[in-house]
Design brief:
It is built from five helices and five strands, in the order H-E-E-E-H-E-E-H-H-H. It has helices spanning about 5-15, 35-40, 60-65, 70-80, 85-95, and strands at about 20, 25, 30, 45, 50. It has a three-stranded mixed β-sheet.
Length: about 100
């Protein structure tokens, strides 16, 4: 697990900078929790609402960096868990990897 990146992700989710959306990595100015991670890793790789040709899924290269159950996080996001609640789950994973 890339702990510094995971900590940045947690901070970004709690920052209030990102408006939470559902169903896609990004839709307009709304991001799912995984879209926030993509934005942190490579902000300049968005083409409209698409990130590196991945409209709704997390690229494997990014998933490998954080080593978390990204499908679980996406499900939490899409079923109404807040960014703060999702950040709590990521923090628990960070603690397991220290």
């Amino acid at each position: 697990m890339n702990i510094p990146l995971a900590k940045q992700w947690v901070a970004a989710l709690r920052s209030g900078k990102y408006k939470q959306g559902k169903g896609k990595l990004r839709r307009g100015d709304e991001f799912c929790c995984l879209g926030v991670l993509c934005d942190l890793v490579a902000h300049d790789e968005w083409v409209g609402e698409t990130f590196r040709q991945y409209a709704g899924t997390l690229p494997g290269s990014i998933s490998e960096q954080v080593s978390v159950a990204h499908l679980r996080l996406a499900t939490m996001n899409d079923f109404g868990k807040s960014f703060s609640e999702i950040a709590d789950v990521i923090e628990a994973e960070i603690q397991k990897n220290l």
